[in-house]
Design goal:
It comes from Streptomyces glycanivorans. The protein folds into two domains: about 45 residues, no CATH class; about 160 residues, no CATH class. By secondary structure, the chain is α+β, with helices and mostly antiparallel strands. The longest helix has 11 residues. The chain contains six helices and eight strands; from the N terminus they run H-H-E-H-E-E-E-E-E-E-E-H-H-H. The protein has a four-stranded antiparallel sheet with strand order 1-8-5-6. Strands 2-3-4-7 form a four-stranded antiparallel sheet. Helix 4 runs parallel beside helix 6.
């Protein structure tokens, strides 16, 4: 169909014998008008102006605010970023660093590593910056895909060679797991650690340096914790 009205095309053809040129495109409105109004406007050549209540919204929309990190559960805790699904797929091979986070005080580095060969298993390397003159201990909590929450105690002890670091395996950690941690602090004289948590934490030790840190922690705790450490080691 041409853009001219029926009346305009008929009159032009009758008086000049030539077809009327198509008029310049104009902004016409359709929304908000009845069918008979649109038919009559097409027949007579009247342009229906867009109605304000049906005009498209061309105003630029503001971008959504970036997501902020979740607040820590309690004082002394800080939330670690979740591993995205893409991170689990791009990590290949064993001992691959997937995520690295520095504690709010800048004293500790948390390095999430892939430790499994064929399956996606993860471990946490905890590196203490600076020099430590006594063993210290951090706490890590994370959720498994089935919703179960696990708590691991991660000790670090001074090393004569290399950085002060420990390495633990995060059993069941996966993409989407939420987790939080506390920075390493000196081992208390009478810790109220559940025996099951201590045993699980020692079994999660992934290298000899971490097990040696537990031996040093043993020398600073009471009889009950010592027996649990001895049994798990």
């Amino acid at each position: 169909m041409t853009r001219g009205s029926v009346v305009r095309r008929s009159w032009s053809s009758f008086t000049t014998g030539r077809r009327a040129a198509s008029p310049r495109a104009r902004v016409r409105g359709r929304d908000g008008y009845a069918l008979w109004q649109r038919v009559w406007a097409s027949f007579t050549g009247i342009d229906l102006s867009p109605r304000l209540d049906h005009a498209p919204d061309l105003a630029p929309r503001s971008m959504p605010e970036p997501r902020r990190p979740a607040a820590p559960a309690s004082e002394g805790w800080f939330v670690l970023p979740s591993l995205p699904s893409a991170g689990a797929l791009t990590a290949s091979g064993s001992d691959t660093a997937v995520l690295e986070v520095v504690s709010p005080d800048g004293r500790t580095v948390f390095v999430l590593r892939r430790v499994g060969g064929r399956t996606a298993e993860y471990g946490l390397e905890l590196v203490l910056r600076g020099v430590a003159d006594q063993p210290e201990l951090a706490t890590v909590q994370y959720t498994r895909p089935d919703g179960e929450q696990r708590t691991l105690l991660v000790p670090v002890s001074p090393s004569p060679v290399g950085p002060t670091a420990s390495f633990v395996r995060l059993d069941g950690f996966a993409a989407g797991s939420t987790w939080q941690a506390t920075g390493p602090t000196p081992v208390p004289e009478n810790p109220a650690w559940p025996s099951e948590t201590v045993a699980d934490s020692i079994r999660a030790a992934h290298n000899e340096a971490t097990r040696e840190a537990w031996r040093q922690v043993r020398e600073r705790t009471g009889q009950g914790i010592r027996e649990t450490i001895d049994g798990a080691l």
